[in-house]
Design goal:
By secondary structure, this protein is α+β, with helices and mostly antiparallel strands. The chain has helices at residues 3-34, 37-45, 59-70, 128-135, 145-167, 185-199, 201-227, 233-239, 260-268, 330-343, 348-376, 384-402, 404-417, 423-444, 447-473, 477-482, 486-508, and strands at residues 77-80, 87-92, 108-113, 119-120, 274-282, 290-297, 306-312, 317-322. Strands 4-3-2-1-5-6-7-8 form an eight-stranded antiparallel sheet, covered by helices on one side. β6 and β7 form a beta hairpin. α1 packs parallel to α12, α2 (37-45) runs antiparallel to α4 and α12 (384-402) packs antiparallel against α14 (423-444).
């Protein structure tokens, strides 16, 4: 590689990495915990759900409850389960019946508990797991700014990955095995950055690509909508199979008895290892009522196997059918693979734990890259004013990034002790404490102190999390394990393990009483 190309790649890698470092750290840190979003939500509520992709629900009972509360006549009803928790998502569109009651004319999005059948709104059911999950794509920033920002951050991260590989290509194997902790500081940070960066390269590449796709795909497909579909966005969604066929409202009452439970059971009998993931009812109670039952083959049998059957209730006939074993399309594969490799939910807890570790290692790669940038510019030939500026930038970076650990641990305690916190209180506790702690470390002007204080305080708070759970609910982790409440058991033990590791790491950083940095 010529010196000119090397310098181009080097500066592109450095600038793109530094510019996005703080936000990228937030995305990876929150994203790592998001692998356990469902477990955190169930732990906060003190309930453990069946770990399955299939909807766990008595459909007839659920429809009866919803009809009593919201009048389903003429509505389109979509029941789905996107998370492993007791809450089932139910979307009720406004009725097509002009003579229906007022409450039937209002669309609703609800969560229905599959045990108690109690309905709650999205805001009422908001929990810490949902907060952390949405934080990893900056959804707390008003839409669409947060979405687009996270998408472009992922895109810039992809540039940083590619240029980093090009920089180290010739020594990509030899540098992976090099680690010199006794050398000068810049060498230590460089070795750590290179080795861990290469270790997590496939993981980081996948999340850069899929993250950019999910968050800015609307901008990518906008030209296609404008020119290929003459601005008809609905037609694009239909061809991509994000929407289903619509059936006309006959405006005549349905006289035939039906059972959604029986329809779902009949669908499952068509294929082995088939899990029901979505049930859609169109024109409920109308003579032209149709029911779509959709699902997928279990991942250990077939990675992509989307199947569905559409029934016309009045006649009992099947109007559409898709075999998950023989009719899987290229479009199905692309959509499913992108989602599955991003969420990491196809390999059980083993894959989630590996993904979590790789996510945290990516956070360390980000921090080490920032430290390389600082140490490389802390030289006598660099003007004092610029050195002060560099120190200040890194101090702010570290304060914001590292304080996420104790803030997250503290939020877990608050979520359990003061359950239910609600959306506003979760926002206040997390963001205000994060701001105050960041300001404290910035004013402290000691990066080593920031590092150790965050590790030790986060560890201590992490050890308190299972204690807080046990004292407030009586669900100590050994009791949860005995009661087969694995999600509750997992979160408690997860924090014990993480806290033990970070406490050891914080204790080994021998910086108690260390002198503050020069600036």
């Amino acid at each position: 590689m010529s010196n000119r190309n090397y310098n181009i790649f080097f500066h592109t890698h450095t600038v793109s990495g530094i510019v996005i470092s703080v936000v990228l750290y937030v995305i990876f840190f929150a994203g790592s915990f998001s692998f356990f979003r469902d477990d955190i939500a169930s732990w906060e509520r003190g309930e453990s759900a069946v770990i399955s992709n299939e909807i766990q629900l008595n459909y007839d009972q659920a429809i009866k409850v919803l009809d009593t509360a919201y009048d389903l006549q003429g509505r389109k009803i979509t029941i789905s389960q996107t998370h492993n928790e007791k809450n089932i998502a139910a979307r009720l569109e406004a009725t097509k019946d002009s003579l229906a009651t007022k409450k039937a004319r209002e669309s609703q999005f609800l969560y229905l508990n599959n045990t108690t059948y109690k309905t709650t709104t999205y805001v009422d059911s908001y929990n810490l797991g949902e907060f952390i999950y949405r934080l990893h794509f900056l959804a707390q920033i008003p839409y669409p700014v947060g979405y687009y920002l996270s998408g472009f951050i992922a895109l810039f991260f992809l540039f940083a990955i590619i240029t980093g590989v090009l920089l180290h290509w010739k020594k990509i194997v030899s540098n992976f095995y090099v680690f010199r902790p006794k050398e000068k500081l810049k060498t230590w940070w460089t070795d750590a950055h290179t080795s861990l960066g290469m270790l997590g390269l496939p993981f980081q590449f996948v999340y850069a690509v899929t993250g950019a796709f999910f968050m800015i795909k609307l901008l990518i497909v906008a030209p296609a909508v404008q020119f290929l579909y003459q601005g008809d966005q609905d037609q694009l969604y239909k061809e991509l199979e994000y929407t289903t066929a619509e059936y006309e409202f006959a405006n005549k009452p349905l006289t035939k008895h039906f059972s959604i439970n029986e329809i779902v059971a009949a669908t499952k009998k068509n294929w082995n290892d088939f899990d029901i993931t979505r049930v859609e009812i169109q024109n409920y109670g109308d003579a032209n009522m149709h029911v779509l039952v959709e699902g997928e083959i279990q991942y250990n049998k077939k990675f992509t196997g989307i199947g569905k059957i559409v029934y016309k209730i009045a006649t009992g006939e099947i109007v559409a059918k898709k075999d998950p074993y023989t009719q899987t399309t290229y479009l199905d594969s692309v959509k499913n693979i992108l989602y599955r490799i991003h969420y990491g939910d196809y390999g059980g807890y083993g894959l989630k734990i590996i993904s979590f570790v790789l996510g945290i290692l990516s956070c360390f790669v980000i921090i080490s890259g920032v430290m390389i940038w600082l140490v490389a510019r802390d030289k006598k030939n660099v003007p004092e004013k610029k050195r002060r500026f560099n120190e200040g930038v890194v101090r702010i970076y570290l304060a914001i990034c590292l304080s996420m650990f104790p803030v997250t641990a503290m939020s877990f305690i608050a979520a359990k002790v003061f359950y239910p916190l609600g959306q506003d209180n979760i926002y206040s506790i997390y963001f205000i404490s994060w701001l105050l702690l960041s300001i404290f470390f910035i004013l402290k002007k000691n990066n080593r102190f920031t590092n150790q204080a965050c590790l030790l305080s986060g560890s201590i708070l992490g050890f308190i999390i299972p204690i807080a759970n046990g004292l407030t609910t009586g669900n100590w982790f050994w009791i949860s394990f005995g009661n087969h409440q694995f999600q509750l058991f997992f979160v408690d033990v997860f924090w014990i393990v993480i806290s033990a590791i970070t406490f050891y790491a914080g204790f080994k950083i021998n910086c108690l009483g260390a002198e503050p940095t020069r600036y």
